[in-house]
């Protein structure tokens, strides 16, 4: 079990080198062209479009060049005309593989990376851009966790409806990562301490001790990954 824990920590370090090089806060004039302000590195999770596959619930498999768009909060593919396009029929998608990285689709959260399988739970990881302003956003708030920026005069909210941004001179967006716990029945929950202890109920004391000893912050990616690696080793 200790070797599994060590391997998970090594994977965390290697797997996040690309993400760590990205900016976190972006400032735009309303209506700006995103491709002229955000670099490719900041707009996409992976350095390039990877060979991938989309598996549908009926058994159909479609292969394509895929990448995850942080801007849209969705997996995109390269079409026959070389344009980058969003996937259709999302509600019929079972799994997506972008290179060796698995994703799922959930109506309330969009496309989500499966960051690891830890026995009683899988860890979901969602990268997105959230709008910053005078209002304070809360962790796992429905508006923040699922909004996908389609332009800088509008955004698509959690229900898929386009809403118009206010006519401010500047729009400030922040790159953010939310984590979710996925149980054996494919139910998705925010990665909170309470939910984690319920999923690993037979190891409550050990999990509590680990979180206390490491001062675990469930808003911090490295802390979440270390905690889940520990839970998976129990």
From TrEMBL:
Keywords: Signal. Residues 1-21 form the signal peptide. This is Organic solvent tolerance-like N-terminal domain-containing protein.
């Amino acid at each position: 079990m200790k070797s599994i824990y060590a391997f998970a920590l090594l994977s965390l370090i290697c797997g996040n080198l690309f993400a760590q090089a990205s900016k976190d806060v972006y400032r735009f004039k309303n209506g700006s062209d995103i491709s002229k302000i955000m670099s490719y590195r900041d707009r996409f999770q992976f350095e390039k479009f990877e060979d991938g596959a989309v598996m549908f619930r009926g058994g159909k498999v479609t292969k394509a060049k895929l990448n995850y768009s942080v801007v849209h909060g969705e997996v995109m593919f390269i079409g026959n005309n070389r344009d980058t396009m969003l996937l259709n029929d999302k509600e019929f998608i079972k799994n997506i593989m972008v290179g060796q990285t698995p994703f799922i689709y959930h109506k309330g959260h969009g496309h989500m990376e499966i960051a690891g399988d830890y026995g009683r739970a899988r860890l979901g990881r969602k990268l997105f851009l959230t709008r910053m302003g005078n209002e304070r956003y809360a962790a796992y708030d429905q508006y923040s966790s699922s909004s996908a920026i389609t332009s800088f005069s509008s955004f698509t909210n959690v229900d898929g409806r386009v809403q118009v941004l206010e006519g401010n001179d500047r729009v400030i967006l922040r790159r953010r990562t939310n984590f979710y716990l996925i149980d054996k029945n494919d139910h998705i929950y925010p990665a909170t301490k309470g939910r984690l202890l319920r999923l690993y109920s037979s190891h409550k004391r050990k999990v509590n001790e680990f979180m206390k000893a490491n001062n675990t912050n469930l808003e911090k990616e490295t802390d979440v990954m270390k905690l889940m690696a520990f839970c998976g080793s129990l």
